[in-house]
Amino acid sequence: MAHLRQKQKEFYLGWKFLKSLGTVLPLLYPRLEYATLLTIASILCAAGYEVVSYNSGTIIGKFYNALLSKNEAYFWNLFWKASLIYLGQSLLLATTSFSTWLLYLVMRRNLTIALHKLYYRRSIYYMLNSVDNAGIDNPDQRITQDVERMCSTLAKNIFPYILISPGVIAFYTYKTWATAGGFGVAIIYIYFIIGVIANRIIVSPLTKWTARVERCEGDFRYKHVSVRNNAEESTFYNAAEFEEYESNRFFKRLLKRQLGATLWKYPAQCTRHKNISHKILDLLNHSTDCVFTVLQNFFDYYGGVLSYLIQIFPIFIFLSYKDMDGPTLAQQISNNAFYFIYLINSFTRLTDLALALGELAGYTQRIDELVRYMRRLNEEDSIAWKDDENRSSSADLIVAENLCYSAPGDAEDLISDLNLKLSKNQKLLITGISGVGKSSLLRIIRKLWEPRSGTVLRNFTLKDTMFIPQRPYFPPGQLSLRQQVVFPLIDGGKNSQEIDSNKIMKILEALRLRSLISMCGSLTDPANFEWQAIYSRQDTLSPGEQQRLSIARVLYHKPSLVFLDEATSSLSVDAEFRVYQLLNEVRN
């Protein structure tokens, strides 16, 4: 079966990222619900934190005043006031962190459920994984890992700071202008512009490298999943050396991509700035006791130096404080330093977010690519299939006229000009050599493949029809034996009360599978093994037992129409006769 891959796509931080964000945001905020409320709550908490931070920053200057003026009563008043302020600041910081964590959970829930809805509609998951992925690598990774990382980055590292930053910057710009004039504001703005240009140059390639790393992570993980699912077959081939070589090849390619991403992150770290909420006191006191390199912390601590450079305007140029006494001047200088540093860090916090935005852009565009492709498949409709609107009066279940089909991506037809009519209560056996197109015809009837030409009329509904594929499928996840038999019905869903356990027991008895009940503990106990793994091991269930368990589903659901794709190929003649005898009893 064809599985096409296009050339690897590159992602960048630019206009395409904004378009991708426009696609994904409605999935994160589908309506006025928890995500919206938590976003508002996070913004309010962050805004409240900024207000308290202003008071905590300016109270330091008041301490200088109280100490230099030797006013003990004023000092103790400030001490208790500062204690309450910092307590409130700690509570607001914890509340902000808590609300952004809840926002991450709700965002991930909304986006994952929305992607699942698209992924499992009209068998799109089959198209992506088995027919043509349209260059979309590892859709499972995009739905699981990329969504998790995108929501985590967006909720915890970007929201709500990027939303309140304009207001914070405007407020401290006003404070800086009032004390240092336009020159002081200009110095800080130029400092910020230099940082923006440096980050723009560095972060744009980082988006591309993030997407590359994610692709290689998915390929490496899929290689190990493949080894796990085919361990027995690989061992029969004595392929341990090959599997080790291939696993290492995938891993080395991943390490190469990670190294490239790390090399691009290094210069970004050189211009990275610490969060003011964590380091404001260190900056005010010129603390340099950290383990990072000088380059990595250049902008962190140079902001403190720059804040005192700006002090020359009100003190030496404008002579704004010439009439102030010592304690009042110390308080004013401390407050000015706080205003300048906070404005610098409000700007540099935005450039600090550039790293997070660069990674976010990679995740968002990968998810957007998946969403757009799935939506396009959902909107497409084919004229090759026709469903009879008057099913009850038609005697034909399937009518194929001049049908031609081939494997996706294959120019050579498997079958040409097929005319077929299958009437109700009629049995049809299709035989032929391997590869002639027998299973492919079932894929056409099931609408998994698109015919090249001709039409197919279907006078049946999928609700009353069952397809039993060649390879038995037993979903993993600690499911009970009863759930495996009633699959795809959900045991525990709205129809779970209608499930007849006695009927299942009789079916297993008729198929000589009653030993499975003791193996699983009981009919309803969650099995303490993964079905997918255990059923791929012949020493646990033979292929014939797997096929009989698949037939148990047909006997339980009693559909009007059944398509069996070599569903009894592993059974003995006697067992096969018994299975068809049971199927006939159900039919009659």
Element layout with pairings:
Blueprint: H1 15-28, H2 34-68, H3 72-119, H4 124-131, H5 139-158, H6 161-229, H7 231-236, H8 240-270, H9 276-284, H10 298-309, H11 312-317, H12 326-379, E1 385-387, E2 396-405, E3 415-423, H13 438-445, E4 453-458, E5 465-468, H14 481-486, H15 501-510, H16 515-520, H17 531-534, H18 543-557, E6 561-564, H19 573-587
Parallel strand pairs: 1-4, 5-6
Antiparallel strand pairs: 2-3, 2-4
Helix pairs in contact: 1-12, 2-3, 2-6, 2-12, 3-5, 5-6, 5-12, 6-8, 6-12, 9-12, 10-12, 15-18, 18-19
| Helix content class | 55-70%
What is the global morphology?
elongated
Can you count the helices? 19
What is the alpha-carbon Rg in Å? 34 Å
Sheet having the most strands:
4 strands, mixed
How widely separated are the two ends? 37 Å
CATH topology of the largest domain: ABC transporter transmembrane region fold
Percentage of β-strand residues: 5-15%
Ranges with pLDDT <50 over ≥5 residues? 271-296, 531-539
- Give me the strand/helix succession: HHHHHHHHHHHHEEEHEEHHHHHEH
Mean pLDDT, rounded to whole units?
81
Question: What is the CATH architecture descriptor of the largest domain?
Answer: Up-down Bundle
Q: Output the CATH class name of the largest domain.
A: Mainly Alpha
The total beta strand count reads 6
